[in-house]
Amino acid sequence: MGINTQAKAADISLNFNSLPTEQGWDVFSASSSPNSLFSVDGTVLKQNTMGIGRLFSAFQINNVVDIDESFTLSFTARVLNDETTLSRYNPFGFGVFVTTGTQAFAIGLGLNDIGIGPLSEISSPVNNSQFYDYRLEGYFLTGEADLYIDNTLVTTVSSFGNSNNNSLIIGDTTRIRNAQVELKSFTFTQGSHAVPEPLTILGKGVSIGFGSFFKHQLNKKKFYFFLCIRLTFLLQ
């Protein structure tokens, strides 16, 4: 069972001179050699889980999310390649999660799609094989977060239930898809921006409609969300 620890608000960032494990993060992996799947070159963190089969490998840092504070999760990444290991939808060959022990927000990147939770996905309004800035601004007490790509509002997403530890998670978080990814920046801050005000359905439609570069259709569909995390999540 996950631990819902009340954490003190903290700012978390990554540099790319060393692996996250040298910056206070833990590795959890079904691979026998997780270090071989990640590398750094001073400018990016490289993940390559292509060809590992139905395994997963990611990094996790515990007890850093304060549920009483708003948050901003920002990262810059691109997906160079991906593959599916089962004929089920799941874009979390590279995923970024914010979890409290009872709730979570998540972004998963595929070459052509973006996952925003266990029951939601959008067709990517951009070419994910190029670097883009992805940002979630949210608040666990309202259960909503705004997703921006290159500072343009794409959609508002809802949190979903989970039983993982209070933590941040980055990496290949599923047995369903593997990916080759480069992560160029990563920051997590709390209490540094205003709580997003709820948008009406019409307001969301207008804001998206006037995002000339980010016209998209939000598709709600059920899919098997095989997130394989230490302890329990949605699949044991």
Task: Give a topology summary.
Blueprint: E1 12-13, E2 26-29, E3 38-40, E4 45-48, E5 57-62, E6 70-84, E7 94-99, E8 103-109, E9 113-117, E10 120-123, E11 132-139, E12 144-149, E13 152-158, E14 160-161, E15 167-172, E16 177-190, H1 201-209, E17 218-220
Brief overview, please?
The protein has one helix at 201-209; strands at 12-13, 26-29, 38-40, 45-48, 57-62, 70-84, 94-99, 103-109, 113-117, 120-123, 132-139, 144-149, 152-158, 160-161, 167-172, 177-190, 218-220. By secondary structure, the protein is mainly beta. The protein has a single domain (12-220), classed as Jelly Rolls.
Major pleated sheet = 9 strands, antiparallel
User: In whole angstroms, how far apart are the ends?
Assistant: 11 Å
How many individual domains? 1
CATH architecture call? Sandwich
Oligomer: single chain
The residue ranges in which pLDDT falls below 50 over 5 or more consecutive positions are 1-5, 194-236
Shape: globular
The percentage helix is under 10%
Mean pLDDT: 77
CATH topology: Jelly Rolls
The fraction of residues in strands falls at 35-45%
Secondary structure tally: strands: 17
Tally of separate helices: 1
Describe this structure in words.
The chain is mainly beta and 236 residues long. The chain has one domain: Jelly Rolls, CATH 2.60.120.200. It contains one helix and 17 strands. The chain has one helix spanning 201-209, and strands spanning 12-13, 26-29, 38-40, 45-48, 57-62, 70-84, 94-99, 103-109, 113-117, 120-123, 132-139, 144-149, 152-158, 160-161, 167-172, 177-190, 218-220. Strands 2, 5, 7, 8, 9, 10, 14, 15 and 17 form a nine-stranded antiparallel beta sheet that branches. Strands 1, 3, 4, 6, 11, 12, 13 and 16 form an eight-stranded antiparallel beta sheet that branches. It is globular and about 40 Å long.
